[in-house]
């Protein structure tokens, strides 16, 4: 990059930092809230007579939080020999004492989340294990993550992490939740640490050839089949980037190249598109000349990290089945709010009554005879079929050196397929399947415009796709 471009990049990053670096007042408010909460936890532990301690973890503990983020994560570490039932009981008792207006949530084990002086607080019990690989629950490694990074991130590197986080948020790739499947906070910190800063990380990412692997402690003990691998410095068996999809890795690469070529503040602060109206959706459908279908149903009452994997699995099953039957899906999407939607855009909604089915070459005797016999049926001495069960099958006949048949389709209209029991045979997520069993609606062609009231923003993204 020419020196002038490097200077422009530095100016852009400086302007971004003016907007995202927490000021002294914000830092002081956070510190006071953490101190007050920690004191409450310690007092509650004394009352319970439990030998445990409290530690702040996460981005607010490491100084890598972006201004405006209001999250405080406190982990209460119980001795490793504590039994799980006691950990859960004490953890909830502490949480409800410290956050009396909070609510109980459930991950691998229960914890309490709530609000304190304008901050969103998670109070999580864990086992005080010796290292990040000796786990009794998945959250036990988190304090080890904290210790590792606190020893290595100085103020300037923490600022570089904040810039990278804001960049990922701007391009829609930040978050390890199972809806986004992007870059977690811990992963962003490790990548910045590995590359020594935001700019050098972007330059490297622009030239990645996945799969890409980093092992900060050079201690990995297994291989991974992921596009991006960052071996956890506290656990040699874990890939920190396991949830990050190939698409989000590619998204980082695309925007890294674009930003390095043309540094702009706007990349960091992209807004949602304006929602489409029903008529605008219908106009897109008319212009494209495709056949969109939407399966709309009541969204299952589960948390997003359970819902979205099931939606992704379900839409993949629907797409595969429609493709297998010849309807040629072009693209799919899934949305969820009060309702959930499996959206698929087809090249063809309707097909001829018959479909061609090619068989093996005649010279592959065993397979060829099996194919021929399967479609020819039993024949009498004159070579004629017995009965009329195969009256809607044409052939077998020769197509070059291969057998082929033309057979009647089970479904000639994709809507009929999706309204049949065949929908429940495509590999749906379990909660999605249950919701569909309670009832669903098929919206076809321009009728998908009815989704705009609830999903106008999502449809705007669909009909104006970006990297």
What would you say about this model in short?
By secondary structure, the protein is of the alpha+beta class.
How does this model look, in words?
- With 467 residues, the protein is α+β, with helices and mostly antiparallel strands.
- It contains 15 helices and 14 strands.
- It has helices spanning 3-20, 24-48, 59-62, 84-98, 142-150, 155-171, 185-195, 198-206, 246-261, 278-288, 304-324, 365-376, 414-418, 430-437, 452-463; strands at residues 53-57, 71-79, 103-106, 110-116, 119-128, 212-214, 228-230, 291-298, 329-336, 339-346, 354-361, 393-399, 402-408, 441-444.
- α8 (198-206) packs across α9.
- The chain is globular, with a radius of gyration of 28 Å.
- Residues 378-384 have low confidence and may be disordered.
- Its cofactor is Mg(2+).
- Belongs to the tRNA nucleotidyltransferase/poly(A) polymerase family. Archaeal CCA-adding enzyme subfamily.
- It comes from Halogeometricum luteum.
- Keywords: ATP-binding, Magnesium, Metal-binding, Nucleotide-binding, Nucleotidyltransferase, RNA repair, RNA-binding, Transferase, tRNA processing.
- Residues 40-143 form the Polymerase nucleotidyl transferase domain.
Largest sheet: 5 strands, mixed
Tell me the structural class: alpha+beta
Assembly state of the chains shown: single chain
Please report the distance between the alpha carbons of the first and last residues: 23 Å
Segments where pLDDT lies below 50 for 5+ residues? 378-384
């Amino acid at each position: 990059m020419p020196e002038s471009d490097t200077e422009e990049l530095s100016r852009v990053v400086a302007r971004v930092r003016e907007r995202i670096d927490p000021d002294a007042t914000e830092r002081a408010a956070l510190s006071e809230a953490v101190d007050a909460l920690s004191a409450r936890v310690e007092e509650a532990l004394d009352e319970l007579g439990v030998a445990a301690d409290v530690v702040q973890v996460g981005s607010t503990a490491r100084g890598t939080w972006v201004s405006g983020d209001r999250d405080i994560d406190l982990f209460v570490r119980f001795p490793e020999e504590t039994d799980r039932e006691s950990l859960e009981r004490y953890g909830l008792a502490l949480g409800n004492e410290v956050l009396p207006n909070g609510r109980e949530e459930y991950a691998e084990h229960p914890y309490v989340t709530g609000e304190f002086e304008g901050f969103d607080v998670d109070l999580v019990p864990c086992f005080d294990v010796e290292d990040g690989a000796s786990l009794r629950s998945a959250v036990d490694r988190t304090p080890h993550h904290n210790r590792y990074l606190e020893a290595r991130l100085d103020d300037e590197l923490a600022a570089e992490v904040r810039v990278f986080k804001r960049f990922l948020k701007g391009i829609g790739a930040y978050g390890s939740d199972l809806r986004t499947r992007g870059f977690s906070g811990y992963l962003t910190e490790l990548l910045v640490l590995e590359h020594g800063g935001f700019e050098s990380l972007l330059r490297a990412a622009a030239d990645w050839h996945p799969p890409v692997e980093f092992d900060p402690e050079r201690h990995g003990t297994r291989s991974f089949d992921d596009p991006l691998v960052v071996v956890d410095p506290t656990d040699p068996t874990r890939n920190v980037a396991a949830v990050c999809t190939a698409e989000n890795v590619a998204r980082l690469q695309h925007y890294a190249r674009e930003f390095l070529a043309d540094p702009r503040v706007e990349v960091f602060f992209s807004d949602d598109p304006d929602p489409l109206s029903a008529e605008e959706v219908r106009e897109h459908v008319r212009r494209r000349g495709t056949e969109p279908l939407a399966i709309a149903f009541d969204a299952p009452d589960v948390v997003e990290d359970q819902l979205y994997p099931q939606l992704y699995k379900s839409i993949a099953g629907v797409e595969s089945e429609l493709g297998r039957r010849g309807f040629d899906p072009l693209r799919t999407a899934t949305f969820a709010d009060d309702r959930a939607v499996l959206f698929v855009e087809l090249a063809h909604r309707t097909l001829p009554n018959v479909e061609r089915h090619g068989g093996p070459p005649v010279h592959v005797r065993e397979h060829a005879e099996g194919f021929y016999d399967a479609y020819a049926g039993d024949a009498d001495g004159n070579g004629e079929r017995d009965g009329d069960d195969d009256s809607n099958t044409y052939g077998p006949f020769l197509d070059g050196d291969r057998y082929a048949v033309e057979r009647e389709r089970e479904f000639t209209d994709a809507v009929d397929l999706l309204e049949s029991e065949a929908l429940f045979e495509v590999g749906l997520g379990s909660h999605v399947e249950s919701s569909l069993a309670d009832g669903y609606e098929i919206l076809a062609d321009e009728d998908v415009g009815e989704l705009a009231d609830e999903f106008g923003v999502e449809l705007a993204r669909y009909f104006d796709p970006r990297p």
